[in-house]
Amino acid sequence: MTEPGDPRPLVNLEGVNKHFGTLHVLKDINLSVARGEVVVVIGPSGGGKSTLCRLVNRLETIDAGKITFDGQELPAEGKALARFRSDVGMVFQSFNLFSHKTILENVTLGPIKVRKVSKSEADKRGMELLERVGIASQAGKYPAQLSGGQQQRTAIARALAMDPKMILFDEPTSALDPEMVQEVLDVMTGLARDGMTMMVVTHEMGFARRAANRVVFMAGGEIVEEAEPDAFFTNPRTDRARDFLSKILTH
Fold it and tell me: Do the beta carbons of residue 40 and residue 208 sit within 8 Å?
């Protein structure tokens, strides 16, 4: 278990490789995420960012290398994998909410089923979390009755309800209308401020600049560059990063 002031990284990837058929999607990835750190992964589409996120939650398996979480190698299957997944929250592009359950039921399902929390306790905690993400008034509604931004905030509350050690965000705003993006980013910025360990794949450069402890720039399945946000955005070291930023920051 994590000890206060534990110097070990929460997540560590060593020499990680991943193929999809003949496509070499991730090439010798070495990356660690410290406890309480916010790492934002950016780069062109097809660069391996989402695959990296999915590997950390073991939604995909690796072909070579090693991934450890809280000092342990990722479990292969069974109860150990279910336990591990309950410690690592994941928020996807699509909200993946149960359409036949209310917003509150979506948030409390995991704690009741997996953590064996009582319904009354789960409901109380669920309402606190819905309050935190700004949609407590929507608790009795169904996902189809909410905007995309509200659904994504529900998905964040659902991840938080499991008291995870880390949350992975895979392009959490890419499916949203532009006016809803900020409300989700505001919630994520608040989590970062509160010390939640986060790995965020995103195209939102403002969020990366404001909330990240470290920016990781990926292209062609490799980590091309990593740096603190100010250093990365004002003085990228590689031509590839400079080219990417010149295209994305002028629009």
Answer: yes
For residue 236, the SS3 value is coil
pLDDT greater at residue 114 or residue 29: 29
pLDDT of residue 41 exceeding 90, the answer is yes
Under 8 Å between Cβ of 91 and 159 = yes
Domain at 206, CATH number: 3.40.50.300
Q: Return the amino acid letter for 196.
A: M
Q: Is residue 145 a part of any domain in this protein?
A: no
Q: Report residue 5's pLDDT band, with 50, 70 and 90 as the boundaries.
A: low
Domain housing 230: 11-96+165-248
Contact 100, 142 (CB under 8 A): yes
d(CA 185, CA 172): 9
The tens digit of pLDDT for each residue in 134-170 reads: 999 999 999 999 999 999 999 999 999 999 999 999 9
Q: Residue 198 has what pLDDT?
A: 96
Q: By the 8 A CB rule, do 89 and 168 touch?
A: yes
User: Tokens for 211?
Assistant: 């909330």
Three-class DSSP labels, 4-23 = CCCCCCCEEEEEEEEEECCE
Q: Whole-prediction pTM value? A: 0.91
The answer to whether the CB of 166 falls within 8 A of the CB of 198 is yes
Residue 229 maps to a domain: yes
What per-residue confidence (pLDDT) applies to 3? Answer: 46
138 within domain boundaries: no
DSSP helix/strand/coil, 177: coil
Within-domain flag for 151: no
> Which distant-in-sequence residues (6+ apart) come within 8 Å of 67 by Cβ?
11, 12, 13, 14, 16, 55, 56, 73, 74
